[in-house]
Amino acid sequence: MYRYLHVGSVRLAWKDFGGEGPAVLRLHGLFGRATTWEGTAAWLRPHFRVVGLDQRGHGLSDKPDGAYSRDDYVDDAVAVIEALRLQPAIVIGHSMGALNAWVLAARRPDLVRALVLEDMTAATARPDPGAWVRDWLSDWPLPFSSMAHMRAYFGQPALADYFSEVMAEDETGYHPRFRIEHMVEASVQIESRDHWEELDQVRCPTLVVRGAESEYRREDLQAMAARIPGGRFVEVPQAGHVVHYDQPVAWGVAVEPFLLEVKAGRP
């Protein structure tokens, strides 16, 4: 069930996945939405209260112009945690959501109990920030005439499953639930510099997860875990960037024991 709250003039959509126990807030990656965490929520619910946020510019949340900085995303997460009284929450983030999660933990350690960072690097700087997002999205044959057309375009079943969650139908066909210019802006904000400074301020228990076939360098993600006191690193075989879609069972095997340790107060 989706519900809504406001951060200033921006209406944010959040999904209550149910469950009881310590709170888990999930932050999706660029292009995604809260429903991409449905499979993960199924094994979290017996142990945790599970909430997912459609981050600004994504899903059912508002899509304002010029508002996709780290401050914007972190302020949204703070507002959700405080409004829903989730603190201190375990925050699970994928890609951009992982970056937002560790910046949140650095700035507001009182709100974050632990982190799971799925396939994101702190070595984010690129010589042409946002270019790959602009070029890739510009090549999409929009609108897709059908979901079958969309799935055939993406090819890989896991990738097609992921993007099927972010499509909406109108009279012309299927379009993504985001605006290309906002995704480019968000990626520029990510890729204009590295984010080691914020990572070095994290002090809560943290699990860094990498897909073994990810384009992000293993040594960078290992360094991320090493720079956080008590940080851990795990790699999931035969998984690319979206680990929880590529290898959902192995993802759960990698992450669930850490979360149960956090719940028991052991890390």
Automatic annotation (TrEMBL):
Q: Which Pfam families match?
A: Abhydrolase_1
Q: Give the record's keywords alphabetically.
A: Hydrolase
Report the domain of life of the source organism: Bacteria
Tell me where in this chain the AB hydrolase-1 domain is found.
22-247
From the record, what ranges are coiled-coil?
A: none
GO MF annotation: an example = hydrolase activity
Keyword Transmembrane: yes or no? no
Q: Does the keyword Hydrolase apply?
A: yes
The molecule here is called Alpha/beta hydrolase
What is the species of this protein?
A: Pseudoxanthomonas taiwanensis
